[in-house]
Amino acid sequence: MILFFVFIFIKTILLILPILLIVAFFTLIERKFMAIVQRRKGPNVIGLFGLLQAISDGFKLILKEIVFPLNSNNYIFFIGPFITFFLSLLSWIIIPFDLDSVFCFLNLGLLYIYAISGLSVYGIILSGWASNSKYSILGALRSTAQMISYELTIGFIFLTVSSLSSSFNLSVIVLMQQSCWYIYPLLPIFIIFLITMLAETNRHPFDLPEAEAELVAGYNTEYSGMKFAFFFLGEYSNMFLMAVLGTLLFLGGGFPIILSYSLMFGLKTIFFILFFIWCRILLPRYRYDQLMNLGWKVLFPLSFSLFIFYISFFKSFNFLITSPLNTTQFYIYE
Question: In this structure, is residue 21 part of a structural domain?
Fold first, then answer.
């Protein structure tokens, strides 16, 4: 029994460390790409071509003083960033990075990710409330309302994809796309997903919870040092997770055509990452009322209508097929 838990602990560390490194260099890629578009150099001092800038920023945040605001709830103020960071890592245990490489083979994988993304609101709202700052609580309330609004839309996106593949298991969804990626029959759903994933991760042009012109820095205004770093890592980890989900749900994962699975998986994920960066560079920020109107009056009714349409269409023409895999068990790959 002890050896089993040691084995699980080692596998968890081997899963988390690469993700943290990728997230760290994700920030460097974003800064480099923005510098190229804006015709400036970007980070180029620390390390060859500035490649160690992300590591340097991490050490800088570790060494910074941790400050607790006056009259704040210190316990919740301290725990809030850890909740956000921890929940951002939980979803990675069911991501199939290869055809036979997944930490946990879970039948209800999409529902699991949906539940974890809903829980991530708690870290933000607790941090904003415990800071005892008007800017922080306004940013936390904005973020909570925004995530709840767009959770409904992304829920119907998950239902549409899972209905087409007759499974909530991510590995099965990838295998079902051997002959045809879901981006072709589900192109309108894919476009909605691109918009929704920006709002879900509080990214530009939907970064209203952190609008510096209105709320200084939103829910993390009072945070410094490593507590701020946990928010930062959680945000970029969620962005990377949404990029991976887009690859799995619509682009066939990394299913090998010419190159290997892992290489194809990485190239497709880079497409979504560059989409995040491109939106930050080119698009102006929405007003908050525009954001809510887009979520409740456009995307939610549209995603629900498309879900009904696709289910009716596939059922009428008998396109809904049963998964060839037995997904009635839950197990961990050894």
Answer: yes
pTM of the model: 0.84
Q: Which of 147, 206, 195 is CA-nearest to residue 302?
A: 195
Maximum Cα–Cα distance across the chain: 64
The pLDDT of residue 265 is 84
**Whether the predicted pLDDT of 178 surpasses 90:** no
With H, G, I as helix, E, B as strand and everything else as coil, classify residue 253. Answer: coil
For the segment 293-319, the average pLDDT, to the nearest whole number, is 85
- The Cα 250–Cα 27 span in angstroms is 25
What's the distance, CA 103 to chain centroid? 18
Rounded to 10 degrees, the C-alpha dihedral 204/205/210/213 comes to 120
In a domain, 322, yes or no: no
The confidence band for 99, taking pLDDT boundaries of 50, 70 and 90, is low
**How many domains would you assign to the chain?**
2
pLDDT of residue 49: 77
Q: Are 132 and 74 in contact (CB under 8 A)?
A: no
Tell me which residue range forms the domain holding 2.
1-63
Task: Determine the pLDDT at residue 320.
Answer: 55
- The secondary structure of 87-147, three-state, reads HHHHHHHHCCCECCECCCECCCHHHHHHHHHHHHHHHHHHHHHHCCCHHHHHHHHHHHHHH
Helix or strand holding residue 157 (H, E): helix 134-165
Whether residues 32 and 158 fall in one domain: no
**Angle in degrees, 0-180, between the axes of helices 300-316 and 187-200, rounded to the nearest 10:** 150
